Each structure stands twice: as structure tokens, then as C-alpha cells.
Amino acid sequence: MDVIFQRLRSAALAVITASLLAACAGCHPFGDADRAPVRVDGVVWQPDNATAQPQGKWQQLGARELLVQWSAVDGVAFVPGSKMPPAPRMPDWERIAREPWAREVILGLAGRFDEKAARAGIEQLVEESAELARLPTPLHVTGWYFPVEIDPTWADAPRLGALLARLPRPLWITVYDSANLGPDALADGLAKWLPPDVGVFFQDGVGVYAREPRIALHYADVLSQRLGRARVRIIAEAFRPMPGGGFRSATADEIRPQVNTYRGYRVSIFDGPHYLPDGLVEALARRKD
After folding, report:
1. Burial class (CB in 10 A: 0-12, 13-18, 19+), 186
2. Both 130 and 215 in a single domain?
3. In this structure, how many other beta carbons lie within 10 angstroms of the beta carbon of residue 160?
4. Domain span including residue 24
């Protein structure tokens, strides 16, 4: 009888707790993902000649960490002092270092615009990245990022495990699931070869309509269970495809429920200079009426 009573009492408490949580969700300022202000931890910047001088008000969303996609791409450097030729337009790193959205910087290393080329030449990219990581910058660098993205369809990805040992720590990579094999397949593969001191940014896939935010959150949860919560962050895609090709900025109504679904995780939004103009930022920073 005592066991039955304890079970009944536990069931009753569960019902009461669920009711209280539901009530709180309705009154909490972040309970309504469609209306709550958007808050992120960081903003991503993929340097190119068109955005060599990034400007924005991303700090209004809470961003204080800048994730630079790469400091060199296709053998052209966006930082001075490397053996590679400099980009036609070099960023003003002194000014960027003073921006409120770049108080901390995770500096991307050597990459390629073409994913197949990047994967085929990871040894060279690691060598170039090791050189780039030694160069001084005025930035407050708190971590490094190796910009060769990983998904379950890349059979040779485990080769990266040993190569990443040549790069400094803290070190981050990006993972995604273009084939929609599922979070377990993604997490299982990473757990087999990814060094335990390398963190992952999970690219949510919402911007290309690969999945809904709630499914992206499930991916992050599974990755956290396998790799540890501290090693998992989310990249929220702030773009959407356009008919006929190319991408546009996502609207505030598209971004708001997307990013707000990921509460509890560190989120960086991709990418500020290309897709987050000041007007959109100001709309996202306010609660929707």
C-alpha cells in the first residue's frame, strides 16, 4: 500500500507541476517564442570582399562574441603577415576589436569556398591554419575555429582527429546533417573520432528548410548528451532561399521563433554582415506587439 500511495502522490505532483509550468510559460517573457525579443550570444561573419568592413548593431541582440568564419579562404588572407597574398580589401581589425559585438572573438583559420575542395585538401588547410594561428592580431581571441564543416556523409572525416592536434585550443568546428540521417548518427560518428577538447557548433539547417527549429533543438540535445553540454553551441541561420537561387535575409517573424527555441544554449547567428541589417536587428530586439 505504501508503494501504491507513493506512486499516486508522485503522479499527482507531476500533474500539479506540469500545470504550474504551463501557467508560467504563458506569463514568462520568453514563454512566447513568436513574440519574445531575440537574444543571442554571438554573431557570425563570413569575410569576403563585399563585407570586408563589417558594420552592425548586433549588440542590441546581446551579441558580444564574434565568430569569424575564416581568416584566409582559397589561399587569400584577410589578416596581414601570412605567406598567402592579402585580400584586395583588408578588414580594419583595430576597429573591429573595439566593437561591442566583438568583445570576444573565435577566429576562423584557413578554409575554402567549395566544400569538396576543402575536404579533399584538409592537410594543406591544417598547415595553413597553424601558420595563421601564430599571427598577432588586435583581437581578443578566446578560441579558434577550423572551417571545414562535418556531416555524417563525409566518410573520411575521422582523418581530422589526428590533424586537429596541430591546432591551438580552445578549438571549434561546425557540424550539420544535410542528409537528415538523424541526431544519433551525427553524434555517434563524432563521438568515435572527435578529440574530447574540441567543441562543435551545430548548424541548425533552418535557413535552408532542412528542418524545423524544434528538430534542430533535438539535435543539439542529443549532441550534448554524447559530447557534453559545454562542447555544444548552435548556429542559427538568418537567411532563407530565394526563388531562382540565392538567399535573402530571413524576416523578423521567421527568425524570432527560430532563435528563441534554442533558449538554454549558446547561440550565434549567421551571418551578421550579410543578413542582419540594422532595421531587422532593431525589430528583433523588441518584443513583438
Report:
1. buried
2. yes
3. 21
4. 1-29
Please indicate, yes or no, whether residues 18 and 100 belong to a single structural domain of this protein.
no
By DSSP bridging, strand 267-270 and strand 232-237 are parallel
Task: Give, for all 289 residues of the chain, the pLDDT tens digit.
Answer: 333 333 334 333 333 333 333 333 333 444 589 999 999 999 999 999 999 999 999 999 999 999 999 999 999 999 999 999 999 999 999 999 999 999 999 999 999 999 999 999 999 999 999 999 999 999 999 999 999 999 999 999 999 999 999 999 999 999 999 999 999 999 999 999 999 999 999 999 999 999 999 999 999 999 999 999 999 999 999 999 999 999 999 999 999 999 999 999 999 999 999 999 999 999 999 999 8
Do 117 and 16 lie in a common domain? no
**Does residue 149 share a domain with residue 10?**
no
Burial of residue 29 (number of CB atoms within 10 Å: 0-12, 13-18, 19+) = exposed
pTM of the entire structure?
Answer: 0.89
Pair 57, 18 in one domain? no
Query: How would you label 111-126 residue by residue, b for 16+ Cβ within 10 Å and e otherwise?
Result: bbeeeeebbeebeebb
Q: How many domains are there within the chain?
A: 2
Alpha carbons 112 and 246: distance in angstroms, whole number: 19
Residues 16 and 71 reside in one and the same domain: no
Q: Give the C-alpha separation, 261 to 288, whole Å.
A: 16
